[in-house]
Amino acid sequence: MKNNILVLGAGLVSRPGVRYLLDHENLNVTVASRTVSKAEAIVKGYTNGKAIALNVENAEELKQLILANDIIISLLPWVHHVKVAKLCLDNNRDMATTSYVSDEMRKLDTPAKQKGLLFLNEIGVDPGIDHMSAMQIIDSVEDAGGKVLHFYSYCGGLPAPDDNDNPFGYKFSWSPKGVVLASRNSARFLENGEIVNIEGKNLFLNPRTETVDGLGEFEVYPNRDSLPYKDIYGLKDALTVMRGTYRNLGWCATLKAIVDIGLVDDTPRDNISQLSWHDLMGSLVDGKGNGDLRLATANKLGIGRDSHVLDRLEWLGIFSDEQVSERDNYLDILSDLLQEKLYYADGEKDMLLLKHKFTVENADGSKDLITSTMIDYGIPHGDSSMARTVSLPLAVGVRMMAEGKIKLTGVQIPITSAIYEPVMAELAELGIKMKETRTRI
After folding, report:
1. Helices 293-301/251-261 angle, 10° precision
2. Per-residue pLDDT tens for 244-260?
3. Catalytic position from the list 94, 126, 130, 350
């Protein structure tokens, strides 16, 4: 039994997973954070929990902390994961994260296997629950002699319908900057046998509309590069493999406008923090509106002055005389404004929406449409759905690692039944579960 667990980071998603581990009294959990008060709040009341201050830039201090524990969880920003992983490799410690496997992390696969170490990544919600719930169905279809012809997987963190009360249809349960930066990603997917490439500047140009039973219509835009999942998921017969992101209607047109205006540029500039939003926007849209900033913005974007997109931007405050925040680039200034306006008030709930659609050909040649859907809500005055669905899969996986129930080594993601079956079963006990339907087509 590997009893001593180190959690690096005490941010927005940490608490539910750490509390799950602390509820297992045979595990000792140390939470290390730059702001020790955040760690103290998480472990409060638990005799098997400890909070300490840590500056992750202090390599020697980090090394000593890693040496004092058996399994290292990194809930730090993803840029720190490889540094932590290399220290784990040097000091023979297992590791887990909820983040995508980077190229640098992937390079550690062979040396980790040589040392018998497990670096388990992508065990959150997206990535994480999406992998595990998809593989449950893919494996069951293939075990019955069928094959998956088309696969769509969409996920999004959104306000619960009762608390969806702003024109953007969105509130931030994590870093606004991270959400906005994702708007610059290019995307690629396979559909009906054709590879579709979308440049980052066009990511929001042609969103799809998807209906979810009981919730209504949502927009979907493609999520990064879906092509590797044809191999990762073993979808050898698939003509379609597409992963996408859910947003409420209107989001994509509004984000496209924000991108086209130039507000996601993070180039440092002198003295822009002296400007009002009105002046900053005037400089970006070149003032082509005869003194009417809304009209000038409409002209730059090629849309009508009465567009709902401009209603949303005006509500946000970018046409106002308010001073911008004290930053040196447009992206950070925008992120501060989004954080100020699009936030969860105390007691409000978020919602995590995940849906897979499979077209399968059965062994007898018949075809079915299988859908698998998770709709999870945050707890008023308690943990958000985002925090629960990110950190609880991680915590369950780490408990399994501690108990020696995962025999894999190297850099892994949770796509094998030895991981996904027990983790998904435990999550169902915790109230996080998929609902499956199957219809003959």
Report:
1. 100
2. 999 999 999 999 999 99
3. 126
